[in-house]
């Protein structure tokens, strides 16, 4: 970086301050649930929150963000679902606001033969909160769409975590992660293509995490090939 005397150039200082402000806003701005659900039309959905009562507690106590508020948990009806998608605010509400519903819509179209539970919107959420939600709903798989920790270049990046047979206390090694989903990183269509492949393989192999990652093809190969019927992927 250039300098003026012993100081950074003014443009560089202002760029840094702007990026830092965007990162702070991404962390502290509440998820706009009303705007998010407006895109769902008449589709059913559930709104839940973790055991962290407010943002300050959430940031200081990650453990509370991994478990459902007990009073909210009992409102989730048990069902028989192949998968539940969760839109969690995480550390960037901007990311979830921007990418969660488009990804959910795309996945609904790609998983027409799956029983997909109503979307769950979760606040003060950590990745593992999806396990608790899936257990309560009776879902065999959970896809947590969550805002990633913002950096000084990207404040609207969403991560997706796929877990087969989730349970409370499930280790991170049992998950598959797609990260950097934002307009200038991995696009929603690309993420959906990759995620659909992983989900079909997970259902066939009955696992996610380290074992599935080793077998997953490169994203470029997926993007240049036509989607195969599920029975053809089971090889």
What would you note in describing this structure?
- Helix 5 packs across helix 7 (188-205).
- Residues 223-235 have low confidence and may be disordered.
- A hairpin with a 2-residue loop joins strand 1 and strand 2 (7-8).
- A 6-stranded mixed beta sheet has the order 3-5-4-6-7-8, with helices on both faces.
- It is an alpha/beta fold.
- It is built from 10 helices and 8 strands.
- The protein has helices at residues 10-28, 33-38, 55-60, 70-73, 93-110, 129-137, 188-205, 210-213, 219-223, 230-233, and strands at residues 3-4, 7-8, 45-49, 84-88, 119-123, 141-147, 158-164, 175-181.
- The longest helix is centred in the N-terminal third of the chain and has 19 residues, at 10-28.
End-to-end separation in angstroms reads 51 Å
Q: Rounded to an integer, what's the Rg over CA atoms?
A: 19 Å
Taken from the alpha-carbon principal axes, the silhouette is globular
SSE-based structural type: alpha/beta
What's the story with the biggest beta sheet?
6 strands, mixed
